[in-house]
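Lab meeting notes turned into a lecture example. A postdoc, R.K., suggested we walk through two folding results consecutively so the class can see how the record format repeats. The first protein's sequence and structure tokens come next.
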Amino acid sequence: MRVSSSQIYNIANIGMRDAQVAVNKTNQQISSGKRVLSPADDPVAATAILMLNQELARTGQFSKNIDTADNNLTLEDTTLQSVMALVQRLKELAVSAGNTAVLTSSDYKSIAAEVDSRLGELMNLQNTRNASGQYIFAGFQSQTQPFVNNGGGNYSYRGDEGQLHIQASTTVTVAVSDSGKKIFMDIPAGHNTFNTSAVASNKASPPAVISVGEVVDQVQFDKFYPNNMLVTFNVASAVNPPLPNFTVTDRATGKILLDKQVYVPGQDIEVMGAKFAVFGSPDPGVAAIPGNIAMGTFTPTDFTAGGVGTKTLDITVGGVTETLTLDQDITSIADLVTQLGGDSAYPNTNPLSSSASASANYAKLRNLGITFDATGFHSPAGVNFTVKNGAPEIDAMTGMLTTATGTTSSDGVLAIPGDKFVIESTANQGLLTTVSRFSEAIKLGERSQAGKDALAKIVAQTLASLENVITTISAVQGEVGARQNMLESTKNMNLDIALNSQEVLSQLEDLDYAEASTRLQMQTFVLSAAQQSFIRVSELSLFKYM
């Protein structure tokens, strides 16, 4: 077999290259301390190593999550402890305020000053922020201040009921916050009470405010509960002489509870056992422009059996239709006004006032909110209406078009309501509201015996509400402690998982230095031998023998 010089060089080159690669790889292993440098070195081990590294990365992130969660819960627990200390002090002040027989007005002013100071502290604590500037009691709305002073001793919650969670392990999720509504607002009051608020769409500038109020007749209020009330301000012309005024209605049914009461800023409003006051200048809204269908030339007409006979016409307002009846001898406009139930003094001395049809017409017009006088039909509320399905005789008598589809008013414009305030019944009472009502109650001057009795009732309600606050906060503190315990045990479990993963990872990828050193020596020897052999072989040539 003939072996060419080129083959000798190629074989030698391949041998030395492979030996050099082996030496270089072993050197890399020794310098890195890793046995598996690429998946090709050990595909099975490489897959396991990848999974173990991912597990260690997750465990490291879980550890960071746990530290963040523990910091948040520690801040919450510290804040709640501060709130509890303030509540305990407020209980002491309430007990002191109950000594109505010995305390003077000066004493009560001193107590009120401290109560107001504690109220400010409570609000600051309930608006606590963490190191990231997030409000810890705002639920998911962590960038929104949760508790706001609306004036008049009124406080509202603007967060939500969300609860933030953090992943502590692959199987454990821990809540790291609590809604301020749950902790500080949904406190059982021990008696039916109410919250007051201004409707967001109110237009007065500066805004009018409503006081926090109080229940002054528990029996009457309990009968009204759980209904809510709505205070609506009306245009001045709604009363005579024109003055600012308001109407109080049942919010659900629209039933009028107080109608067109003259408004005096700051003056107590008592309705259904509740007492509150409105301050400022509420916007009165805009009065309605009545809708009208005018009469034309009047023509006397006899609608009795001896005349043209009984005739009817329909009036439709907002989808509601009433049928009016004419069955009398109408000799004058006064007769017509009375027959159609439009006489504001009805019933009166007019002979037609004894007519059953006139009485029915009167009731039907008022059901529709329509009036009738010598000039025609009117809708004071500004609702447009239709007069139709009449008879030619009615058209001839009134000068109106009432037949067929009749006539529809087009000039009516609805009123724009003024500012509104809501009195919302509730069995709960927020902590700030409790303290605010207590503060308002003890700021009064000299007291009659009835006033002292009323204060004693407020003090008793305050003590009961504060006790409920303590119960609620204690329960939340217990939950916070349980979560921290869970975080601690989860952290220990994560450490065990990380340690085990690191041990397995070490077994898979760490280099055996003794074996690698021996292998390097052998690979170096092979490389050296290949190099020496090449030198010897390369010197073989026929030219040396010529």
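The second example is placed directly after the first for contrast:
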Amino acid sequence: MRKARAEDMEVLQRLASEDDHTAVQPTHVFVKLGAEGQEEEIIGCASIASIPLVLPWFHTERCKGRDSRFLIGVMENVLAELSGDRPQQWICVPVVKGSPFEGVMGRLGYLAADEVRLHFKQVKK
């Protein structure tokens, strides 16, 4: 594994697309080294701590739809400011099944990752 370089981005997007996947904001590239004298082969990538994960909670009764949509916009503006010089910043907002937000997020410009489960683990030093 090595850090992703600017020249990797187009290759990663193409390879992921050919494999029916996407490479979202990759920071590192997985490579397999060939025999001596051969070039490395890209076999994947990872986005390590490059996409903010936002876990909002909105009170079921006190926070109305208009309030929550406004606050999502505020969160997006805060993240845009924190992104610094980057021309674009991705954001990840998990939504549980059955949430009223399931039908709203797409209208707010979010892309759904079909049937994805997030796995959490504490990593010790």
